[in-house]
Design a protein that fits this description.
alpha+beta, five-stranded antiparallel beta sheet
Length: about 90
């Protein structure tokens, strides 16, 4: 998989982009466990991708739900047994 960020919000620590192989849009943010830091990627549709670039409040509401693990069904890559927590 090749994840390409198209938008990044440094203050809120999330990005929007497209996975090049599948063409899926995503929201990602950093997480860490006791060994490493990595990104979690949540699939969004094109309309959400466009909305989240224009509307920070909508993006943050979605990212907050992802960070709380409320939208795990949207994870593009399923985490292992040592899943990290949002940074």
């Amino acid at each position: 998989m090749k994840f390409t960020d198209m938008y990044f919000n440094r203050e809120e620590r999330f990005s929007l982009g497209v996975e090049e192989t599948s063409g899926k849009f995503y929201v990602s943010f950093p997480v860490k466990n006791d060994m490493i830091e990595y990104e979690e990627y949540y699939e969004i549709d094109h309309a959400q991708f466009d909305l989240f670039q224009r509307n920070l409040s909508a993006a943050l509401a979605f990212v907050t739900r992802c960070r709380r693990r409320e939208l795990d069904e949207l994870l593009i890559q399923k985490p292992g047994s040592r899943r990290g927590t949002a940074i």
